């Protein structure tokens, strides 16, 4: 959490950018992002999994000035790293274990206009992440015992920063950066990876967390235009 709060504080510090006078965003916005997450923090989680994609969609209401609040849903997926293979006689069979994450969240944010068609967005998403491992290979090694459940839930926070460029009265596109901290410590026994020496040799002291760089869009409803 400390790392995410530091990231959010740095993003908020950029709010010192002068707001374009008289500019307000739409009363209602539909915001979406997609990118490829990169695991940081927990060395054990980073050794076992790599990000495939992460996308979210939210509906937001401007409260006052350019501050807004919204509700949304995020889906993320991670796949095991390629070195994880099942040895069968003289053959190596690649694993195809995946971690699927579904996350309803609340969004709090602020839009800062730097031109008539451009604005930056500072936001914080927070909610509950529902997580499931799929295609888990049944391994009976003592290293993977006692067996642990393969689905879990935990709260998360996600500072988010985006640079947006309005291309139409009702649409803008964006470049986005986010950092997610899941308040849960990765357990390699859940996906049955704890028997790999490369996994057992890693540290596992931090919560699961990752950053995401991607693209987004904003649909602008009831957008005011200048006469």
Notable features of this structure?
eight-stranded antiparallel beta barrel, 10 strands, 227 residues, mainly beta
Present the secondary structure layout.
Elements: H1 2-13, E1 28-41, H2 43-48, E2 49-64, E3 67-80, E4 85-88, E5 91-94, E6 98-113, E7 118-134, E8 151-168, E9 171-182, H3 197-200, E10 208-221
Antiparallel strand pairs: 1-2, 1-10, 2-3, 3-6, 4-5, 6-7, 7-8, 8-9, 9-10
Q: Based on helices, strands and strand pairing, what is the structural class?
A: mainly beta
**Number of contiguous helices:** 3
| Main sheet makeup | 8 strands, antiparallel, barrel
Mean pLDDT: 87
Radius of gyration: 20 Å
Helix content: under 10%
Could you explain how this protein is built, in words?
- Helix content is 10%, strand content 57%.
- It is built from 3 helices and 10 strands, in the order H-E-H-E-E-E-E-E-E-E-E-H-E.
- Strands 1-2-3-6-7-8-9-10 form an 8-stranded antiparallel beta barrel. Strands 4-5 form a two-stranded antiparallel ribbon.
- The protein is elongated.
- The model has no long low-confidence stretch (mean pLDDT 87).
């Amino acid at each position: 959490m400390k790392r995410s709060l530091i990231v959010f504080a740095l993003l908020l510090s950029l709010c010192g950018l002068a707001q374009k006078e008289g500019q307000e965003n739409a009363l209602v916005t539909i915001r979406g992002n997609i990118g490829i997450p990169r695991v940081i923090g927990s060395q054990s989680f980073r050794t076992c999994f790599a990000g495939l994609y992460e996308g979210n969609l939210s509906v937001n209401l401007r409260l006052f000035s350019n501050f807004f609040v919204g509700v949304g849903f995020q889906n993320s997926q991670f796949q095991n790293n390629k070195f994880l293979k099942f040895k069968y006689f003289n053959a190596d069979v690649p694993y195809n274990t995946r971690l699927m994450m579904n996350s309803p969240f609340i969004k709090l944010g602020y839009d800062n206009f730097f031109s008539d068609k451009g604005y930056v967005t500072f936001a914080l998403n927070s909610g509950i992440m529902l997580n499931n491992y799929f295609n888990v290979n049944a391994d009976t090694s003592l290293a993977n015992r006692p067996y642990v459940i393969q689905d879990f839930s935990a709260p998360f926070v996600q500072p988010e920063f985006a640079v947006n460029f309005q291309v139409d009265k009702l649409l803008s596109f964006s470049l986005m950066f986010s950092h997610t901290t899941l308040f849960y410590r990765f357990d390699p026994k859940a996906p049955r990876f704890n028997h790999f020496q490369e996994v057992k040799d890693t540290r596992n002291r931090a919560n699961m967390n990752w950053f995401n760089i991607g693209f987004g869009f904003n649909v602008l409803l009831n957008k005011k235009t200048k006469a």
